[in-house]
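The pair is listed for reference:
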Amino acid sequence: MYGCFKFNPSSRNARKLFMTHMLIVLLIPIASVVMQNMLLLQQHVKSYSETISANEEMALTINITRLLNVIQNERMSLVFYMLTGKNRTQVELSIEHTNDALNHLGEDLNYLLPADTANHTLIADMRIKTPENETFTGLEYFEPYNALNRYVINQIVRSTGTSISSTVWRQFVVYKNLIEAIESINIAAILVLQFICNGYLGLSDYAQFIRRDAAALDYIASAQNFMTSLSIISEAEFSVMQYWRTQVLINISTGYRRDALVEYYHSVTTVLKNLQMVQDQIQTDVKETILEEIQSARRHQSISIGLVVVILIISPILVLMIQAATSTIQNYSTKLMARTMELRMEKGKSDRLLYQMLPPAVVKQLKQQRQVPAETFDAVTIFFSDIVGFTDISASSSAMEVVIMLNTLYRLFDSIILKYDVYKVETIGDAYMVVSGLPQRNGNRHAGEIAMMSLDLVCGISGFTIPHMKNRTLEIRVGINTGPCVAGVVGTTMPRYCLFGDTINTASRMESTGEPMKIHISESTKEVLDKLGGFKIKLRGTVDVKGKGTMQTFWLTGHSMYEHLTPEMLIPMYKQNVVTEPDFLQII
């Protein structure tokens, strides 16, 4: 059988089918590996493209964030100048930095600009032309800056939301929160500076301060939750900011203090610079992470391409090797099959010979190299027979004639006992020994099996003529006894399954004290046969048995199933002129 098909594996079609099967077994995993690597290659190419896009988007984000920072610095320096009249140079420097940031954006500015907005109008329309001639009137004065910053922050979020990698999303969230926090701190600081200068805040400015202050604290707390290693605000600057934050929340009128305004301005700018430094560090970390991802994606892409190429090169070589190996295996299997058939035939012969010498259960135990222990049987029936006048016949016959006579007789016996649940123990000379009830126990049937077999044997050899003595018929004596015995394998060289016990000796005495063509049974056998019923038994009387003393014995004369048969109807199994030579003579 090969799968669902049944055929001769040594045939040509079978060899082709086996070859096809082997090639399919090889090609299926190769195709699977190729497909897997192609899918991985597709994923790596996609990952590489996304990483490149993320790198470009991050570069744009960094440029826009730089613009946002300089705009915020310009706004803060402008507020301080308008409130104190100092640091005019810082204002002009901030405006110059803003212009440089705009020029640095280059083509990226087109992405940032609103529709129909030219480069030169982006800041010019929002910047205060002559701050030294203006009076600070509140936060609404800087609404153009605030609107620009809100717009830039929205563009930052938009520029980094499409291809951001899962490995840097945490850093990106912190980065975005810091941008929002810096903007909220800027606006809140402007309102604090206004409070220090004016001594109070109007209702709308006060509400704006509450919103911006709470938003800044929320963004900073959120950033620190995502990155616990962040150190954003130092204690010195924070104490100053916290003091004026408390004052603004109380919103009680105080006198104008220039030194307090300067102190708060420097504290806020220091905090904002620290935040921008943290922001720059996060930018650097994100960029390094993205570059590592680009290198990793490029490396995995190269490995996938290399694997696909190697597989495509090796596959034909593997196919040729499989073909050669399969042909070798098929040739070897053909020879092995022939040898296996020969070995199976020889094993069958040896098994048949073993089963003829030993019981099958004992043979199986010996084959498994297990010790066969002796076993006690409570009740078995032993059969013994011998040839009447065998000594005289042997004296007047050659050895070969005796062998042919015994072979013919025992073949007849062997064919008869096959019909019964009995085991042939051995033949020694003219003695023929059979037992029932071992090695497989059969209850009380052992006596009935031996009795029926004995009747068949006596009937079967009726008229048996000695082959080389045409005028002389052969007669046998039969003895049967029932009782316990011990059976086991004796010896390691030419092992024999032997029986031991007084039951065997008594059966032998029944045979030796019997009469020709009669079945001599003991009293123990009679008792069992009576229980079975149907057997005809006749009392012989008391017999002096060697080693046992006097015993009451019986003759087994027949069975009720034979009552309707007349002597003419009982046809002996022996056929005249049929002489069988021994097997060893046929081999020779």
About this structure: The chain has 16 helices and ten strands. Strands lie at 375-387, 423-428, 431-436, 465-466, 469-473, 476-490, 496-500, 519-521, 535-545, 549-559. Residues 258-357 form the longest helix (100 residues). The two ends are 41 Å apart (CA to CA).
